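Dear colleague,

Thank you for sharing your sequence with our group. We've completed the structure prediction you requested, and as agreed, I am returning the results in plain text so they can be pasted directly into your records. Please verify that the sequence below matches your submission; if there's any discrepancy, let me know and we will rerun it promptly.
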Amino acid sequence: MRIQVVGAGSWGLALARVLSLNGHEVHVWCRREDNPDALRETRESPLFLPGVRLPDPVYVSTEIEPDVDMAILAVPSHVMRNVAGTLRFGPETVRVSVAKGIENETLLRMEQVIHEVCGPCALVALSGPSHAEEVGRGKPALLVAAGEDQGACESVQSAFSNEFFRVYTSPDIVGVELGGSLKNVIAIAAGICEGLSLGDNALAALMTRGLAEMARLGVAMGADPLTFAGLTGMGDLIATCISKHSRNRAVGARIAGGMTLEQAVAASPMVAEGVRTTRSAHALALLHRVEMPITASVHRVLFEGANAREAITTLMLRETKSERA
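Please find the predicted structure tokens below.
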């Protein structure tokens, strides 16, 4: 297959490597400010994916190759609308969104954003517990290709699957996209737990109750609740809350350590999607009248000036109730 990867950040480069190793003709679009000449020459990005070499057959360019079978949209969610609106792929090109976020202004998922700007097209969301730092080094990862078009999902499954990268399919793109987005909010809270040295018991409780509120919102928005027990719900939540590679967990830990939000975000060149997603998730919870106390607490800490330790105390002193309430 001829495949265009749109975005030369850590995830875009890791996926380009997987696809090239699988024998596909891969083109990577790189912004001029990300130094495409150096990437072409050294085959490595010391900023985004240090120590991982891009295979020699991969093309690196500042231009988009429009005549491709598949396009991997590997840009942050807050720029997806602008980037997708500039793409001129034909209707036969399968679009694959690998962004994990919800648009702040419209509260739309990436599938909805892409369809809004691109019109009818075959669209698949590829998500799951998969840090680029590990995928780029060939460590095993399992993901889910989700979408309404089963043929497109199977095409993505076939393109990516190999001995270290296994892909399942799902028709529940709503649940898959929400799971991948909402877990980043809980991961910020996990980082706060780490920064405050609250221990393993607190982290386990946070992840469990966080998954419950992710599923509540998902069901209210039309998702299958079982999706949140799978790779793109529980699986991705675990990886993002415990991994040293987690950008969102790192932001929470920095804030608990005394940094402002601006300082915590600026400390890494990587985008922590959970910061913006916290705004969207909080707004969606209010819109759908879904109780999401952890998300609300993260919102207060990030955007309302709340003290992180006091926010934990407030959560613990909420009115007691049944676990299934």
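Summary note from our side: The longest helix spans residues 173-195.

Kind regards,
the structure core
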